[in-house]
Amino acid sequence: MVIKVLGGGCANCKKLMENAKRAAEELGIDAQFEEVKDIEKIMSYGVMRTPALVVDEKLIFSGRVAGVEEIKEVLKKEAGN
Predict the structure, then answer these.
(1) With contact defined as beta carbons under 8 Å apart, do 17 and 7 qualify?
(2) Residues annotated as catalytic (active site), given as ranges
(3) Would the pTM count as exceeding 0.70?
(4) Which of 35, 42, 46, 76 could form a disulfide with 6 if both were Cys (CB 3.0 to 4.6 A apart)?
């Protein structure tokens, strides 16, 4: 599973990455994490507001920092659990 946080590296982006890593760790999911700061790449996902979370190239959230429990629900769904 590849989890990307889209954004310019702001505090909210860092918090979203932290929450995503914690969610994956708590679920025991082997994931690769990537920060995407390039505005053209961010726009290619149709994101107008950051931070945004992308799981396996699927845009999940944008414009807010999702909590650990919310991200865990998404990861379970995306992992097919």
Answers:
(1) no
(2) 10, 13
(3) yes
(4) 42
The residue ranges of every structural domain in the chain are: 2-80
Query: What is the β-pairing status of strands 52-55 and 2-6?
Result: antiparallel
Pairing outcome for strands 2-6 and 32-36: parallel
Averaged over successive runs of 10 residues, the pLDDT of the chain (81 residues) comes to 95 97 96 96 95 97 96 92 54
Amino acid occupying residue 69: E
- In the β-sheet with 2-6, what is the strand arrangement from edge to edge? 32-36, 2-6, 52-55, 58-62
